[in-house]
Amino acid sequence: MPHALTRARSQIVQMAKEPVVLVTLIIIVALLGIFILYPLYKVIQLSLMPDGVFSFSVYEYIFAHPRFRGAITNSIMLGAIVATLATAVAYLFAYSISRTKMAGKKAFKILVYLPIIAPPFMFGIAIILLFGNNGLITAGLFNSYNYSVYGLHGLIITQTVGLFPLAYLMLVGILQGIDPDLETCAMNLGASRLRTFFTVTFPLSAPGILAAWLLIFVASMTDFGTPILLGGNFDVLSVQAYLEFTGMGNLPRGAALAVILIIPTIGTFLLQRHILSKRTYTTITGKATRHTADTATPLANGIFFSICLAICLFMLMFYVVIIVCMFIKIWGVNWSFTLEHFVYAWDVSLGVLWNTTLLAAVATPITACISVLIAYFIVRKTFPGKKYVAILSMMMFAVPGTAVGIGYILAFNEGPILLTGTAYIIIACFIFRTMPIGVEASIASLKQISNDIEESSANLGATTAMTFKRITLPLITPAFFASATFTFIRSMTSLSAVIFLISANWNLLTPLLLSQTENLMLAQASITSLILCTTLIFGIYIIKKITKLGQERIFGKRN
User: Fold this and answer.
1) Residue 121 in contact with residue 229, Cβ under 8 Å?
2) Cβ atoms within 10 A of the Cβ of 294, count?
3) How many Å is the Cα radius of gyration of the chain?
4) Hey, CA dihedral for 53, 55, 61, 63, is it positive or negative?
5) What is the three-class DSSP state of 327?
6) DSSP assignment, residue 382?
7) 186 in Cβ contact with 199 (< 8 Å)
8) Distance (Å, rounded) from C-alpha 310 to C-alpha 315?
9) How far apart are CA 175 and CA 292, in angstroms?
10) Per-residue confidence of the chain (559 residues) as pLDDT tens digits?
11) What residues have CB less than 8 Å from 176, skipping those under 6 apart?
């Protein structure tokens, strides 16, 4: 213990030599404590003190009932299957974009974003319209009334398609950061293209693969929009927590289910850190490199193109059926053409769209900056409690949004920080709910950058802040873009947490979409979804342009 205290004191003294760095770290830790740890503490407190007295009665009830035990097992199984499939699809897509010369790459780069910008319930609604009991394909074209899309297989398909772009955003940046000369040298020494892939490309992209798997695993387990529509008899923790909060009104039991959901996420996170600590993945060393790679034969290019095309066509089918539904009087009952749904959508959605876009736009740059700073401190700095900061920065992504919403209400409904009913509580929720993917993307990118680059800058007299601004940050621009993009998208499409935080002055599109879906206003919900998707596409374009302009301002415009 004395040795640990001495080492901690030495680390603090070392950081105190650069006050800007130390103050930044203190502010970040304080923010994590206030907006992540404190709300989670309130949720845990509620689960352990349902009547104001400490008791494990809520947990005893959960583990004594097969319905809740089955939900725990189902959630872990669904998360593992979806994470594995989605990460595999994302890696294939990212490899096709970054390491082949297949045709249509520009179009695929755009189409791959379609699932990630889908609002809650959109893919679930599309699956029901196509494959439901009165679906266009099952009941309309094939008259297969015995087929049911509800259950595990429906969830796997919908979540895999909906979540794989999250992994793609991370993996494409990782693959683009790998020096293509390493692959060229391997092939010049006699290695085949396949052997080069398995001995060079794949091992170097392992940080991104593991980080992507973790994020998809957590996203699948905490998703309740898809399971509540397609789950059927397949109970999962996120839905059970949501139903306990909203349907049964049993807040302590819902909080306990949320706490249980954190356990596999933290376990996966720690396992990832243990595996990554055993390997070295540095590929950016400061030496000049080429920016393109050709590691696929013409036949392989054709195969990659066919696979990517099939994936994109399957995704587009969902959007087509949503668009068609907007012009149908009553799906499956009255197929007559109508435009009356647009009148309703225009009257109801316009003001809510402005609120949603404004709050998301405010949260986006703040989240991206905080994410990069946290990752930098975790990877490049040594300070007391670093591993706990790393765990804490991931924790909010692991908790179901319903628990986050309840936690924020409990934490900020009274002084000293009174935020309930204001825009600030929604912005804070956006920032700290979406921050983990930015942290993971930045960590994966930083692990590819040699320490020698920053050490050389320090030897030339640059401070840590100057080195971070002029060297490190530009090199991890793909991760910064991924963080900003994800934050904007998930803020615009967030539902399960913000549904508890909205007020008369600050209503959002996703709760409106939920209301429309619950009232079987599928055509109106389809229009609202399309409005949201259009806004997201425009927002992503703006973020990409701003990121590019910022990089050009630092490095100068590239010819």
Assistant:
1) yes
2) 14
3) 24
4) positive
5) coil
6) -
7) yes
8) 9
9) 11
10) 556 676 767 767 766 677 777 888 889 999 999 999 999 898 889 889 888 788 899 899 999 989 899 999 999 999 999 999 999 999 999 888 888 888 888 888 888 878 877 776 788 888 878 887 777 777 666 665 566 788 888 899 889 988 898 889 888 877 877 767 777 787 777 777 777 777 777 788 887 788 788 878 888 887 877 887 788 889 998 888 878 877 777 878 888 887 887 777 667 766 665 655 555 545 555 554 455 555 667 887 888 899 999 999 988 888 888 889 889 887 777 788 888 888 887 788 778 888 999 999 999 989 988 988 898 888 887 788 888 888 888 777 667 777 788 889 888 987 788 888 899 999 999 999 888 878 877 887 777 776 767 667 767 777 766 777 677 767 777 777 777 887 888 888 887 788 888 887 888 888 888 778 777 787 888 888 888 888 888 888 888 787 777 666 655 554 4
11) 98, 478
- Could you tell me the two tokens for 15? 């950081």
Q: How many CB atoms lie within 10 A of CB 360?
A: 26
Residue ranges in 277-381 assigned as alpha helix (H)? 298-326, 340-380
Of the candidates 405, 338, 353, the one whose C-alpha atom is nearest the C-alpha of residue 510 is 353
The DSSP call for residue 498 is G
CA distance 346 to 502: 21
Q: Is the peptide bond before 2 cis (omega within 30 degrees of 0)?
A: no
Rounded Cα distance, 471 and 550, in Å: 13
Own/partner long-range contacts of 287-290 (Cβ < 8 Å, ≥24 apart): 289/179, 289/180, 289/181, 290/180, 290/181
The two structure tokens encoding residue 205: 């992209």
CA-to-CA distance for 20 and 27, rounded, in angstroms? 11
What is the sign, positive or negative, of the torsion defined by CA atoms of 183, 189, 194, 199? negative
Structure tokens given for 503: 């007020």
Angle at 493 between CA 492 and CA 494, to 5 degrees: 100
Distance separating alpha carbons of residues 478 and 170, to the nearest angstrom: 8
Residue entry with tokens 């099952």: 138
In three state form, how does the secondary structure of 225-282 look? HHHHHHCCCCCCHHHHHHHHHHHCCCHHHHHHHHHHHHHHHHHHHHHHHHHHCCCCCC
Specify the 3-state DSSP secondary structure of 11: helix
CB-based contact 205:178 (threshold 8 Å): yes
Q: Which amino acid is at 60?
A: E
Q: Please, are residues 274 and 79 in contact by the beta-carbon 8 Å criterion?
A: no
Contacts of 376 (CB under 8 A, 6+ apart): 442, 446, 468, 472
Looking at residue 37, its amino acid is L
Residue type, 539: G
